[in-house]
Amino acid sequence: MVAMLILIRQSHLLCNMTHQDFLSTLAKHYGLQSVEQMLALDQKPTYAMNTNMRGTKLLEKLQENLRRPLQGQKVIDIGCAYGGITIELARAGAEVIGVDIIPSYLTLARENAKNDVDVSFLLADVSKKKFIELVEEGSIDIIVASDVLEHIYDSAGLIFNFSKCLNADGIVYFKVPNGFSFAVIKREVHKGKFGLSLLDPDCWHYFIEGRPRIYYRRWDYFQAIFSHFGFNSFKVIKDCSKLDSSLSVKHNVKKGLEEILEIYKAQNFESAIQSELMEEQINFYKDEVLDDLKNLDSDQLEFKYLINFWEVIFSKQDKILEPNNVSKLRQVSNRVYVNDYVFLENKSVQLTSKPIWISASVSPNEEYYLKGKIYSELVSPNHVLVQIRFLDDESTLLSPPYQGISFSALPDVGAYRYIPIKKSGWSGFTVPFTTPALAKSIELGFRSWKVKSNSLSLEPAIEIGRKSQE
């Protein structure tokens, strides 16, 4: 045990020394004399400094979402930059090659990996056909392209090479900023300026110096181009933790648009051409958001406007991943959105005093039903509270009371129904409801009510339908 503790301490010390060497080299890269001088900067190179931390986070996501261990997997890390992802994958037992087109980045990556892991770094442009000559065709298990695709002009050439490099069961993980998300519009992730992600790349030079080599594309573009090269199965990794969980998706979108328009009005543009270009794109954007609020369901709206980075795993084989698509995206956390009948990744959703909101499209003046199951670990019968809200085609709340639905003056309750549950085990429920005139969608908030937390769970299958079709 003592020998093991000494070994662990020595390994930890070696790792810290390696990272310190990397930081020293990074400081020199920026023309500074010491790490202390770099840390004292008002604008620190935090993206470079946090490279290993990003690698750790990505590793966790891959381990959670893949059906196989990383041990022994052959991986290419595209656009490896400072090497953090490459290093963490190697620590997990993968055989990794880090690839980049910038020599200075590879110098820093090698320093980062020195005395830590055995990895290879390669100077190459993965979008060019010559890259296939460097990697044996069909030999790779995993390709990682994190924060890369927005910098690639020839994305067709890139994904063609992905297809050639990967074996039959291979997967591609990519992460790319969503230029339509409110947060990215407020502050573009590379240059830190308002509205850039809405502009054509050839207009950026009116707002910033130099050639940005940044290309924001819609999700449909990525789905289409991956599908063209045979990647028809995909899984979306979503992080909704930064959303306002007290609001519905449509309310979050309306709030986000209002904030964008307020920030736009407060801008002081340096030239007439800046003002003209931004006004045109903001108006286009506003019209599209308002149209989407009428025509898209909650999960589509969330994916298009509220997810700041799209993180997706693509595969050519359905057996590798559970396939999904944009119209069926679901998040199992403190927020759940469903339409009609869906399965929520076969996980029970724990109920707390904070509502889990479920949203679905409905028609006015119709009889509907909600079906599901609740699992209870309580020692006596109780009930679950379901808050109910109806919205019109403008996503405006229709004021209660509603026909056949109870109403509470408590500000955090409003219209509601109780679902009785047994003292333990599963209890099925059917909740009938009639939609009011003008109703276009319903929002249902499931929550525990005056019971011990973590004692109630919602089954992963929810059904919402017309009573005539029951």
Shape: globular
Provide the spatial order of strands within the biggest beta sheet. Answer: 3-2-1-4-5-7-6
Going by CATH, the homologous superfamily of the largest domain would be Vaccinia Virus protein VP39
Strand residue content? 15-25%
Helix share bin:
25-40%
Note down, in words, how this protein is organized.
- The protein is α+β, with helices and mostly antiparallel strands and 470 residues long.
- The chain folds into 3 domains: 1-46; 50-179 and 216-239 and 307-329, Rossmann fold (3-Layer(aba) Sandwich), CATH 3.40.50; 334-469, Jelly Rolls, CATH 2.60.120.
- Helix content is 32%, strand content 25%.
- It has 13 helices and 19 strands.
- The chain has helices at residues 2-29, 35-39, 46-49, 51-65, 84-91, 103-113, 131-134, 155-165, 182-186, 219-228, 249-265, 272-295, 298-306; strands spanning 74-78, 95-100, 120-123, 140-146, 166-177, 233-237, 309-315, 341-343, 349-350, 356-361, 367-376, 382-391, 397-398, 406-408, 414-421, 425-434, 441-448, 456-458, 461-466.
- The strands form 3 sheets. The chain has a 7-stranded mixed beta sheet with strand order 3-2-1-4-5-7-6, sandwiched between helices. Strands 8, 9, 11, 16, 18 and 19 form a 6-stranded antiparallel beta sheet that branches. Strands 10, 12, 13, 14, 15 and 17 form a 6-stranded antiparallel beta sheet that branches.
- Helix 5 links the parallel strand 1 and strand 2.
- Helix 1 (2-29) runs antiparallel to helix 6 and helix 4 crosses helix 5 (84-91).
- The chain is globular and about 70 Å long.
- The model is unreliable at 1-17 and 322-346 (pLDDT under 50).
